[in-house]
Design goal:
globular; mainly alpha; 13 helices; 269 residues
Length: 269
């Protein structure tokens, strides 16, 4: 079994059934491309945990850089990573090794993450406008590079974000409080980025899924709303109430193409 027993035991009966089928298929495969293709096929119908995406990248690092197959495999990994990202799996270390920048991923920006690793030496107002673990370093760099003293407005925002960062980190064990603190940043992208990273670490956090769906609807993020419904319903296969809400909102706000999934509703499976 590719998944841990703890994870598997928490899955709904219908999802266990499809996972069993995938594992049975993968058990007969040794070729990396075959494995990747089988997982990609599965991912078009079901939300796919990180353990399977990691299997797609198993050959990365084993091939000699002078091997003619190496370049082709790296390109295949980059394409696969885009699908993994849609399934809420983001592996910063692996993506860096693949030279996969955020511009190669579905977003045209880098994420505004609470636990954000700062690399650049040209911090701007954007970098000090939301709470993250390298906020003070960014602000020092911003001051050094600025042509003039930062405005009172910029400094005030920075101080507020420093305080908010500590509050968010302290509330990590309380999903409702943590989510409400994210809202205080008043930045839709910040909420989306951090919620999706957290959901990628715990698919079973139903409370956060529902808070996020409500947030997306309230803020008019209808494309992301439909995508999020789709991910939820392709993991919680037995949640028919949510499936009905998904279908109703698809009628009201959609349709939207889904990057990885078949457009058929799960109940048609």
């Amino acid at each position: 079994m590719s998944l841990s027993k703890e994870f598997y035991d928490r899955c709904c009966p219908s999802y266990k059934k499809v996972i069993d089928g995938l594992d049975e298929k993968l058990a007969c495969m040794k070729d990396g491309k075959e494995v990747r293709d089988a997982i990609m096929e599965f991912s078009r119908l079901y939300l796919t945990p990180k353990e399977y995406w990691n299997r797609c990248f198993e050959h990365d690092g084993r091939l000699d850089k002078n091997d003619p197959d190496c370049k082709m495999w790296k390109e295949l990994c980059k394409k696969t990573a885009k699908h993994a990202f849609f399934h809420l799996h983001y592996d910063k270390e692996k993506w860096n090794r693949l030279c996969l920048t955020r511009n190669n991923l579905p977003h045209d920006k880098y994420a505004k993450l609470i636990d954000y690793q700062y690399y650049s030496c040209d911090a701007g107002e954007r970098d000090i406008g939301y709470p993250h673990n390298n906020l003070e370093e960014c602000f020092r760099n911003f001051e050094e590079m600025a042509a003039s003293i930062p405005s009172k407005k910029v400094i005030k925002r920075y101080e507020e974000m420093k305080d908010l960062y500590l509050k968010i980190k302290a509330a990590e064990d309380n999903v409702d409080e943590w989510f409400n603190l994210l809202l205080e940043v008043k930045d839709v992208d910040f909420v989306k980025d951090n919620v999706e990273v957290r959901l990628g670490k715990d698919y079973f956090d139903v409370q956060l899924w529902k808070l996020y769906i409500g947030f997306l609807k309230q803020n008019g993020e209808y494309k992301r709303l439909i995508h999020t419904y789709s991910k939820y319903c392709r993991f919680f296969l037995d949640d028919h109430d949510m499936l009905e809400k998904y279908e109703n909102d698809m009628i009201e706000y959609g349709p939207f193409n889904l990057p990885c999934y078949s457009l058929h509703a799960q109940k048609c499976k």
